[in-house]
Predict the structure.
Amino acid sequence: MRDYLAEVLVMLGPGGQSFADPEAWVRLEAELGTELPEDYKAIVDAYAPIRINEHLTLLHPATERFNLGKDIRDTCQAWAAVNWDPDRLGEDEDPRAVFGLKEVTFGTKDGLIPLSSTDLGEYIFMATLPDGTGHRICAVEHDGAWYEYRMSFAEWLYRYLIGEDVIGPNSSAFYPGPVLLDRLPMSPGDRTVRTYGPDRGM
């Protein structure tokens, strides 16, 4: 079985593990009522808070600035305020129709939990598979259309980094060469630190 987590870690290069804190994950997962995917937590612990290739942002639950838990709460609150009346939504704009959900909820065990976002107005959520055996990636474009990807977060990120359309059709944000990593400032006086992953032959 292909190890997408290992491939992503190689593509991004050595991570600092600067904020790795198991207790921060325990607190966040208790708040959500469910565990987050292990590969997602491994990537976040290795690199976050970070912006990847100038678009995709990963936050961390143990930091005061760019805090994942706060971002999840804020994102869920914003999306919960949307009018989810099916009569006003196109079929691809209704998560119930796209993902087979009974109701639209955010930040709950049986709902949609935000994992990441881009500066293009795109959001990456996770949801449990219908049979409860694992997770799937649920991505929404800036125009409100939802798409399902039945794969792990690590596989989704790998495919995102090699330029596949994994936030809907024509959503590729491919950058040739090493992956660009912007480490986000952790205090008001700090600046973003830009580094690059290793050469990847692209």
Summary: The longest strand covers residues 113-118.
